[in-house]
Give the backbone structure.
Amino acid sequence: MNPQALTLRHGDEERRAIFAVAEAVELQAPAAFLSEAELAGFSALRFPLKQQGFLLGRLAAKRALGALLAEPDLRRIEIGSGVFGQPLVRHPRAEGIDVTLSHSHGLAVALAYPAESPLGVDLETVSEVAAGTILAELQLSAAEKAWLAARTIDEATACGVLWTAREALGKSMKIGLNCPLGVLSLGQLEPAGAAAWDCRYANFPQSRCLSQAIDGRVLSIALPSETELSAWPQLR
Ligand SMILES: CC(C)(COP(=O)(O)OP(=O)(O)OC[C@H]1O[C@@H](n2cnc3c(N)ncnc32)[C@H](O)[C@@H]1OP(=O)(O)O)[C@@H](O)C(=O)NCCC(=O)NCCS
């Protein structure tokens, strides 16, 4: 199941995307999967948490890209950063291919996808401690306030859904969170299973978000509104 092949259906068109995860316990020696330039970037990182996040994010992203590009040697796939921090894929067959990634507390997820169908992924670990701070920063829409008031899940998980939905959209648009967070708020949240939601954005009708709570984490994927995903990505 890792990496997981997905189909993006948009009208009559079908495109292939790959979802992959990486866990801290599987981390190999950096030289086994990083390019020379990535190794130099890694060696400049001072803090162990930053180092782990970098390695996990690169490993998940390269697994997804390796499957999409049919490239078994992950050192030949390079992931640089653009001026907004967005990941940039370098490989002889990577024209028109993008990647989006997220890491949180020892786990990373990534989606490799064709640039025609912009995607953004975000993973957060549910935290009661962080929930209060998050709530104060979100700049909630009326729809989000109503959803929170009627929620069937705990507050920390609900905050995770609202936060990751914003980050996923920001990544799909390559702006990250460099805008007022209320701009990225949700205008509609529909249940799509026991702990999953199909959401619409208040200000970006061209995009929607699929969010799911799994094992103390929340995973959100922003995708074009009219695009259907063949399956929900699996964390394990
Ligand atoms: C996107 C952003 C929020 C990162 O989120 P995070 O929860 O810290 O980290 P995640 O693990 O989920 O995602 C990190 C990855 O997002 C990707 N990313 C960063 N900026 C991005 C952008 N503008 N567009 C798309 N992807 C981006 C990168 O691949 C990054 O991994 P890398 O640095 O190892 O390559 C952050 O980079 C950003 O936009 N910061 C600017 C402002 C900010 O921090 N605001 C906080 C307001 S409270």
